[in-house]
Amino acid sequence: NAGVTQTPKFRILKIGQSMTLQCAQDMNHNYMYWYRQDPGMGLKLIYYSVGAGITDKGEVPNGYNVSRSTTEDFPLRLELAAPSQTSVYFCASRAGVDSPLHFGNGTRLTVT
Amino acid sequence: GENVEQHPSTLSVQEGDSAVIKCTYSDSASNYFPWYKQELGKRPQLIIDIRSNVGEKKDQRIAVTLNKTAKHFSLHITETQPEDSAVYFCAASRMNYGGSQGNLIFGKGTKLSVKP
Q1: What chain A residue is nearest to B97 in terms of C-alpha separation?
Q2: Cβ neighbour number for residue A5 with a 10 Å cutoff
């Protein structure tokens, strides 16, 4: 298994641009998550999904959107990028609420 | 909602010494407490977890203790080695709940430095 795969690894955006961060998992996990990690800070939940077709907001959803059309894929969309969205973004998945989280390698995003 | 406080934010120890990181949580219904290790530039990885039906769990040099009454749990690393240097995150959630209540809430992390 490849686990959780995120693309791209790095990206620089100009203010106002849009982009989609890709996330795919091959473990047939129902639960998928998007976190952002700012320097010196913990992980903040942006959006999560408990299965295909179901998504919900986390702690910091403003400025982001997600979709979950398949079990495997959980893309994160940034519309009108702002400097405050400069961060490292981690996608994660798990089989159930009592299972460990598996993280992807992250996407480092800079908005200038 | 749940709030997780983690201390200290930085910890420096000599190789071979023990390291202890403490976390407190606010939601008395939380019953799942994992610890993640994140090396510089890498993804967080689970190192140990504990459920509320036990008070302590060990895995070689790593142990976690849980005090449900006081609502705190701790990570203990014995005989530290330079490769233990990393950021450690604690987290808490309600294991048997779906929706947002089952989501993990993370502490802000502890940067552990082990000096040779």
Answers
A1: A97
A2: 15
